[in-house]
Design brief:
Blueprint (H helix, E strand, L loop, with lengths): L2 H9 L8 H7 L4 E6 L7 H7 L7 E4 L5 H4 L9 H13 L2 E9 L13 H18 L6 E6 L12 H6 L2 H13 L4 E6 L8 H15 L6 E4 L2 E3 L6 H12 L4 E10 L7 H19 L4 E6 L9 H4 L17 H16 L9 E5 L5 E5 H6 L4
Parallel strand pairs: 1-2, 1-9, 2-3, 3-4, 4-5, 5-6, 6-8, 7-8, 8-9
Antiparallel strand pairs: 10-11
Helix pairs in contact: 2-13, 6-8, 10-11, 11-13
The protein binds 2-acetamido-2-deoxy-beta-D-glucopyranose.
GO molecular function, one term: endo-1,4-beta-xylanase activity
Keywords: Carbohydrate metabolism, Glycosidase, Hydrolase, Polysaccharide degradation, Secreted, Signal, Xylan degradation
Family: Belongs to the glycosyl hydrolase 10 (cellulase F) family.
Length: 375
């Protein structure tokens, strides 16, 4: 194809007809996914989209597999909430990103008592062997350890850290690897997107230490929660992922939502949100080891943001009435353009997306021009 034809094809693309996972796979990613939380399972309108494999190739239980759900009292395991979502993936054939084994939050009280090293090590071992054992063979990936650091790069003084120091991380990864050898083992955190803050540096140092101690870490998950207009640039995201890529075999965006800080929003706010989403997806497309993107729920109806940050919200790609936003159309356009131009894996690829008046998306394929892709 000549460049002029390619260019025309991009501008006349009709991404509204296309779905995110289908486009993402065509563009060379492994999946485009969403979190699903238990309260949404009874909502048929919600589930029709959540179960659509062409839209979402992967689902993540938002809460169902957290410690407070899976081992609410010591040694008593309950998989009802986690299974309800894992079963959706079984039925549809979607991948399951499992989340999360060891986290300082949403912990039952007994885990936070004062234990010595051996006691804590046994508690972690029992928890991981049971939970990862229960889901063995079902998880594409496990977020083994979640959010071990404060934003200043210091270790969180969690119950696990107090008892074991950094060894709790090493131990968790070792037990997870023994329990389900074929799942990808991830470290997952937020505010590790904008290169090169103290938390990113601490994460890199931790991963090196844990690997040197003989544990396997396959992936680093960047959660990707951010605010419209204050989101990291594509360049920053790519720089960070390049640093992570030196240590692990894959990276991913695991919990993306980009919230408005003032509501109601204007058209300009919504276009800015689209640009911010496009930067995230573009950074993944241009990072060879980035396997996929998970959004932290797809509709504002089930977003955690208003509950956590009162007055902020509308962070998702669909609004609460299940209308697709400009951000959705823009992400779809970018994925479609990348698929058509074969940009993925070409180091020089730099598709630029302009979101204009009324959400009209223009994609400039700099890489196609520079490298003659498709000629
Ligand atoms: C993180 O590491 C990078 C690269 O070594 C360095 O340039 C940067 O100053 C560090 N950031 C902090 C906050 O220490």
């Amino acid at each position: 194809m000549h460049f002029s034809q390619l260019f025309v094809a991009l501008l006349t693309a009709a991404p509204a007809d296309c779905q995110l996972d289908k486009l993402a796979k065509a563009a060379g990613l492994k999946y485009f996914g969403t979190a699903v939380d238990n309260p949404a399972l009874n909502n048929q309108q919600y589930m029709r989209i959540a179960r659509d494999k062409d839209e979402f190739g992967s689902i993540t239980p938002a809460n169902g597999q957290k410690w407070s759900n899976t081992e609410p009292s010591q040694g008593r395991f309950n998989y009802g909430s986690g299974d309800a979502i894992a079963n959706v993936a079984k039925q549809t054939g979607q991948l399951l990103r499992c989340h999360t084994l060891v986290w300082y939050n949403q912990l039952p009280g007994y885990v936070s008592s004062n234990y010595n090293r051996d006691q804590m090590q046994r508690i972690i071992t029992t928890h991981i062997q049971n939970v990862a054992g229960h889901y063995k063979g079902q998880c594409y990936a496990w977020d083994v350890v979640n959010e071990a650091f404060e934003d200043d790069g210091k270790f969180r003084q969690s119950a696990m850290y107090r008892a074991m120091g950094i060894d709790y991380i090493t131990h968790s990864f070792k037990i997870a690897a023994q329990t389900d050898p074929s799942t990808k083992l991830y470290y997952n955190d937020f505010n590790i997107e904008r290169c090169c803050n103290a938390k990113i540096n601490a994460t890199l140092a931790m991963v090196k230490t844990v690997q040197a101690a003989g544990a396997r870490i396959d992936g680093i998950g960047m959660q990707g929660h951010s605010r419209v207009g204050k989101s990291p640039s594509k360049r920053e995201l790519m720089d960070t992922m390049a640093r992570f890529s030196e240590l692990v075999q894959e990276v991913a965006f695991t919990e993306v939502d980009i919230r408005h800080t003032k509501l109601p929003t204007t058209a300009a706010d919504r276009e800015q949100q689209a640009k911010d989403y496009v930067d995230v997806v573009g950074a993944c497309l241009e990072t060879p080891k980035c396997v996929g993107i998970t959004i932290w729920d797809y509709t504002d109806q089930y977003s955690w943001i208003p509950g956590q940050y009162p007055g902020e919200g509308e962070a998702c790609l669909w609004d609460r009435s299940y209308n697709k936003k400009v951000a959705y159309t823009s992400v779809a356009s970018l994925l479609q353009s990348a698929a058509e131009a074969g940009l993925r894996g070409k180091a020089v690829a730099t598709p630029a997306v302009d979101v204009g008046e009324g959400g009209k998306v223009t994609v400039r394929t700099v890489a196609a021009e520079a490298t003659g892709v498709g000629r």
